[in-house]
Amino acid sequence: MKIHEKIQQIRKEKKLTQIDVIQNIRKIFGEKTITDRTLQNIEAGKRAIKTSSLYQLCLGMGITLEELKQGTEDAAIEYTKKKNRDNRYPFYGYNSCAEIISSLKDPFLMLHMILAPGSKTPIEKDPTGTIEYKKCVFCLVRTLDFIIGDKKYVLHKGDSLSFDSRTIHSFENPYKFETQAVIVHYPGRL
What we know:
Blueprint: H1 3-13, H2 18-29, H3 36-43, H4 51-61, H5 65-69, E1 88-89, E2 97-100, E3 109-115, E4 119-120, E5 134-141, E6 143-148, E7 151-156, E8 160-164, E9 169-173, E10 179-186
Antiparallel strand pairs: 1-2, 2-3, 3-10, 4-9, 5-8, 5-10, 6-7, 6-9
């Protein structure tokens, strides 16, 4: 089965219209999302699917990347050069973004997050239920404040922290310089 066929199959199994999926995506990303026309073309196989669009669709349908990929045509290895990635999202606020850097064929999702000085992310929390969601954060540059529940952790360059991402969490950069981190999410969903 091809990935565009699987998107349509899952959407219909979940009794979601294309408009429902787009509305779900906009609740997360605001107006900077794929359009209903783009979704129509993707499901019809008329448009190549960008990594960023695939990620949005998974969130809009409430599934993981692993669930979407299961039973589709898969290659064992995918190599992507930085210049070919176009997955940058300003969903953490002005001048702050996260970029998908892992292959969508992986069972995990890896993001490169950049937070501008004085910025913070919205509060995040993965769904509760039978799936155990985990995140690992690795601070690449400078210092990053990381809030899990009601506890604050200060990560410096080279520090990492792993946790159950079904707990409320967010990131902050109250400092004067940009900070960067790599976030690995398992299974592949934010």
